[in-house]
Amino acid sequence: MQHIVYAQNMAAELAQAIEREGTPDRLLLLTDENTHRLCRPVIETILAGAHEMVVGASDVHKTLATLATVWEKMQEGGATRHSLMINLGGGMITDLGGFAAATFKRGIRFINVPTTLLSMVDAAVGGKTGINFGGLKNEVGSFADAETVLVSTEFLRTLDAENICSGYAEMLKHALLSNKEMWVRHLKFDLATPDLEMLQTLVAESIEVKRRIVAEDPHERGLRKALNLGHTVGHAFESLMLEKGRAVLHGYAVAWGLVCELFMSCAEAAFPTDAMQATVRFIFDHYGRPDFTCDDYDRLHELMLHDKKNVAGQINFSLLSDVGKVVINRRVERSLVDEAFDFLREA
Ligand SMILES: NC(=O)c1ccc[n+]([C@@H]2O[C@H](COP(=O)([O-])OP(=O)(O)OC[C@H]3O[C@@H](n4cnc5c(N)ncnc54)[C@H](O)[C@@H]3O)[C@@H](O)[C@H]2O)c1
Ligand SMILES: [Zn+2]
After folding, report:
1. Which ligand is nearest to the CA of 251?
2. CA-proximal residue: ligand 1, atom 13 (nearest)
3. Whose CA is nearest to atom 33 of ligand 1?
4. Which phi and psi angles does 320 have, rounded to 5°?
5. Which of 119, 208, 213, 252 is deepest in the core (most CB within 10 A)?
6. In order of start, what are the domains of the chain with their CATH numbers?
7. What is the pTM of this model?
8. Per DSSP, which regions of the chain are E strands?
9. Per DSSP, what are the bridge partners of residue 74?
10. Distance CA 326, CA 229 (A)
11. What's the 327 CA to ligand 1 centre distance in angstroms?
């Protein structure tokens, strides 16, 4: 079972995690240009002799070309099957680095040290790794677990407010999938001026929700689809805004997806209206609304139909019948989806 460590002293606890792996013959560190500058100093003391690899920042670099340079650098650094890789960065680094480690010499061990909120609660745990390819996101990849994931919200001191909000949308999703008490605490959290210590507690709970769901369905055959809550509509908004030249962070699109899918949950699965309204209020307060009109509805439907998670050309939604009660594989009439778009624009 993968170790998740909620670190108080990152360098010391990372040293322990490395020790747990016996004696790797080589330590490799993957960062992007930002995490190299901003996060690497935190673990500098344990890096003596490590082979360091730095790549360009952000999802545009999660490519085959970058992966090839990482493999090359691993070779140059003398990595063997007994080496250990540390991925220090956001989801781009944990996805790319995890995949590089999973494939190099048929797989070497790796440790994830997520440095964005999104990667802490989502990308760094659950075993999905990969790259974008042929214009499609996460088109090539594999399931591979980090031996250890070390989590500390201290890294978030340098992260901008938008990326904090973006990651928090996934936490809101986990709370909705979990239980009322957790959901209430998530709506009360002061996201505008986050207390990082308090956030660490929420992050730990959030990771446990994802871990529980993934443990029951590691390869996404059924229950793991619960994690798609907000994402069927959310991905369509992410693509639409990108096409319009007004790209938004993933979590903003997910938050808007949650608004629509909770609206649909009320109509289709008897989700309580007051719980929907409380969640929607929180989302409008912190994420605003997307700039779109009814002329965009056709395109949004097209984008949803092309979602790779569909089976046999049917859009399958993960909805809720209550906080903590998920219903997967729900088909919904187009007219209701349009009403949900109206609601997002005008409610
Ligand atoms: N594997 C999964 O299950 C999974 C789940 C969700 C998302 N993802 C993937 O994760 C990626 C998105 O992750 P992300 O939002 O972390 O993006 P990211 O890794 O691109 O990071 C966002 C930006 O923040 C910078 N950054 C990272 N840590 C920082 C820090 N502590 N201080 C200041 N700046 C910092 C990065 O350099 C980058 O510019 C996407 O590629 C997505 O596909 C994967
Ligand atoms: Zn997501």
Report:
1. 2
2. 91
3. 159
4. -125, 140
5. 119
6. 3-158 (3.40.50.1970), 161-346 (1.20.1090.10)
7. 0.96
8. 3-6, 27-32, 51-55, 84-89, 109-114, 128-133, 136-143, 148-151, 317-322, 325-330
9. none
10. 9
11. 29
